[in-house]
Amino acid sequence: MNNFAEELVSDQIYSGKSFLSKIRDLLSNFQSQSTSTLAVDVNGFPVGEMQNELFPGLKTEILKELDCKDTGASTNFVYERFRWRRCQLQQICQKLKIHEAIEYTARYRMFYFFDHKTAVCTIPKSASSTWREHLRLVNCGPPHHLPITDDARLKQINNQSVAEILQNLKGLTKIITHHAGMLWPDRFHEFWLPALLVNDLVPQDLRKTFNISWPVPQDIRYKTSVYETLYHRIKPQITFGQFIKLVITSHRDGVANPHWKTYHSQCSPCRMDFNYITKTETLEEDLLFIFAVFGIPADASIVENSSRKSVVPSRDFRHFKWISKALRKSLQQLLMPDIQMFAYKWPKSL
């Protein structure tokens, strides 16, 4: 890695506006250096418009022989961290033979910074609220009282055939954000009811009265009185083990909620060929780099729905002590492709 890259991406030195300013100054000062040297450093990354202007003729061919040994996930350099994550993902994808619904990803999960030739795959619990806030601000809409999908340009794209959407995505820089954990939202109709049904906690008479069965149709919403009756009659207390059973069962039956659905089933990381892999653990640093390099006028310090300022693994993992080994093994098998793709490790204590 050359001096330019080391100075450019040291997340130990720069933060906020000073970081953005430093990046732009360094990019400008580097125009006279050898493009062949630079091409090796950014191998596998497409060239954004800002880079095109600074480095005309820059080559970015992907090496046939991938080698992730020269860098690592714990590096202090944002730039090298991105390169390592992408390399790691590509290597794992070469080994795994998994099905990815890229058509679903292209039409329902990809959102665009329209004037910056950049797209991001957003899914619940992986900084999706943060990304959508940036998308609204940069794209000047839609307003907050409307869903992010209510955008004329997005609708125009999604009205095309899947083949046309994928062809358009080939020319864009693509970003994905991964999050290491799962959270348990408290919407009764979307989370509690499925968990109650999977764990046989809804009495038969209530099932017949309200015509409730598993799987719960995702497009059906019962009257509020139904949920109130269930709540007061059952007084539900869903345990962690019962929640994990819901996660596994809903995947098995093809009805997993997006909040805990696997990443490869939503964002198709092996087939979509994402250029930048961000993580919620390093999100602000990652966004600072991406916004600066591609000239996206957004404030990386904006973070939505950050209810937990810190994560203590030992505190979270203690819940696994109360579930069976068989359930833990099923969960591990379900999540292992994602864990490997995004360079996490299954805790030995589990």
TrEMBL record:
Give compartment(s): Golgi apparatus membrane
One GO term under biological process is: carbohydrate biosynthetic process
What Pfam families does the record tag this protein with?
Sulfotransfer_2 (PF03567)
- Coiled coil stretches, renumbered: none
Q: What is its EC number?
A: 2.8.2.-
Sorted keywords for this record are: Carbohydrate metabolism, Glycoprotein, Golgi apparatus, Membrane, Signal-anchor, Transferase, Transmembrane, Transmembrane helix
Put simply, this protein is called Carbohydrate sulfotransferase
